[in-house]
Amino acid sequence: MVEIVKRAKALSVNPLKSSQTIGAALAFLGVARAIPMLHGSQGCTAFGKVFFVRHFREPIPLQTTAMDQVSTVMGAGDSVVEGLATICSKSSPAFIGIPTTGLSETQGADVRMAVKEFRAKHPEFITTEVVPVNTPDYTGCLETGFAKAVTEIIEKLVEAAPRAVDADRVNILSGAHLTPGDVEAVKDMVEMFGLRPVVIPDLSGSLDGHLPDNDFNPLTTGGVSVDDIRTAGAARATLVIGRHLDTAADGLKSITGVTDWRFDHLFGLDAVDAFVKTLTEISGRSVPARVKRQRAQLQDAMLDSHFMIGQTRLALAGDPEVIKMFADLGVSMGAEVVACVAPTRSPVLEDLPLDAVKIGDLEDLEKLAKDAGAELLIGNSHCVQSAARLGVPVLRAGFPQFDVLGGFRRTWMGYAGTRDALFEIANLMLSVEKGEVEPYASIYAQRPGEEDAHGHRSPSSHSGLRH
After folding, report:
1. Which fold has domain 296-430?
2. CA distance 409 to 385
3. What is the Cα–Cα distance from 212 to 156, expressed in whole angstroms?
4. Pick from 378, 268, 375, 365: which is nearest to 322 by CA?
5. pTM of the model
6. Which residue among 152, 163, 250, 289 is least enclosed by CB atoms within 10 Å?
7. Which range is most confident: 52-61, 118-127, 400-409?
8. Distance between CA atoms of 450 and 467, rounded to whole angstroms?
9. 285 DSSP assignment
10. Average confidence score pLDDT of the chain
């Protein structure tokens, strides 16, 4: 049983977590022709937008209700109504998500009541779906905010009326720990079995690094359509990736009755094998040759890298699902997790293959990693300075990654993603000379200039040189 060590400090010295509000906004960005409108001050939105832009290297559509001193004290419901009306009249979005912030939650704003007031005052905007979600940033983390947003999307949009089953369609609820590259890889794998994946939310379509056709678009480009979300009940099956989406999956199943299969992640041989087996059951097809080839390549990579990864002492920091996937992979390769810090509690932490998890910040991680002699740190870009102080290499994973290019769509999931991850970890360990076979020096070898047992001196290294 994993011991969950509670936070003992009154403040975060070196914060690790990203807020629930950012997580909910990220989920909303996976819907087509959408825009999140954060209910809070301009600074709350600007801070989140900076991280999104630096991570994805893309223009990110975010709006704000711009709460000020007066609205904070007197009530901010009118700000929500006016903000929704302005966005609808200027941009005609298909979807608006409204995550709350710490300011509006502390003020006690009733965002759902404000949406009802907007509907009453502006019936002309009935075609725009509006989904509010309570995501105070003083609790939870990016992962919990993402899950809350997906739950609200399903409860608000999915239709309960029975529809004709689309024999090829498969719903996929993708968790916050999946990058746009991961989502695309999962979709490719599902399509290889002759199925049509519909991902909710689909970050691979909206945050994959594409170039828009026009110069400026105030809404998301790509992502899952509102109509595809509404018709989720027509799917043949639902695949859920991420235990933090269990509540959303329960809601979808109760509304539609569609059978689902659930996975923590698709990272590592056993996890991907289970996913592939499920796809064969759903599709009734055998495993494609390409998938078999990728599995064989992963097995070969496991053999190639086990000298470098085996017995490596790992330090992990990040949201619970990110920790779970790397802990599972590391332990399966013979590594040892000696330090682990998460920003908040989660049921998935109780199933980690290690002894203890600390709920805390990066200061806690540094102390634990130093005391345990960690050799590799895995975490987001906030962990880079911690790794430098510890004198160990760092593998960037999670959100945000603002000091590298391409981290936003790094593919971890699947056989190919796992293979590349093993090579990257092994190369990091080679950079500190772990796993190399040291040259063997025979005890019978005579060094230059030394006398042998008979008193004969071997030639000096300078014997052939003229002065």
Report:
1. Rossmann fold (3.40.50)
2. 23
3. 29
4. 378
5. 0.90
6. 289
7. 118-127
8. 22
9. -
10. 90
How far, in Å, CA of 157 to CA of 201, rounded? 13
20-139 fold: Rossmann fold (3.40.50)
CATH superfamily of 169-290: Nitrogenase molybdenum iron protein domain (3.40.50.1980)
Would you give the distance in Å from CA 391 to the centre of its chain?
26
What are the start and end residues of each CATH 3.40.50.1980 domain in the chain?
A: 20-139, 169-290, 296-430
Side chain identity, residue 5: V
Whole-number Å distance between alpha carbons of 365 and 280? 41
Residue 32: name the closest of 190, 170, 230, 168 by CA: 230
Q: What is the pLDDT of residues 362-411, one digit of tens each?
A: 999 999 999 999 999 999 999 999 999 999 999 999 999 999 998 898 99
Distances, alpha carbon 20 to alpha carbons 158, 344, 419, 467, in Å: 23, 11, 31, 75
Q: Is 33 within 8 Å of 219 (Cβ atoms)?
A: yes
pLDDT at 180 over 50: yes
Among left, alpha and beta (phi > 0; psi -120 to 50; other), residue 375 is alpha
Token pair for 241: 């990736």
CB 285 within 8 A of CB 194: yes
- Please tell me the total number of residues recorded for the chain in this structure: 467
DSSP code string of 323-364: HHHHHHHHHHTT-EEEEEEESS--GGGGG-SSSEEEES-HHH
- Collapsed DSSP state (helix, strand, coil) of residue 111: helix
Q: Using one digit for the tens of pLDDT, what is the confidence trace for 43-56?
A: 888 888 999 999 99
Q: Are 79 and 138 in contact (CB under 8 A)?
A: no
* Residues paired with 174 in a beta bridge: 241
Tokens of 220: 């998301």
Rounded Cα distance, 77 and 81, in Å? 7
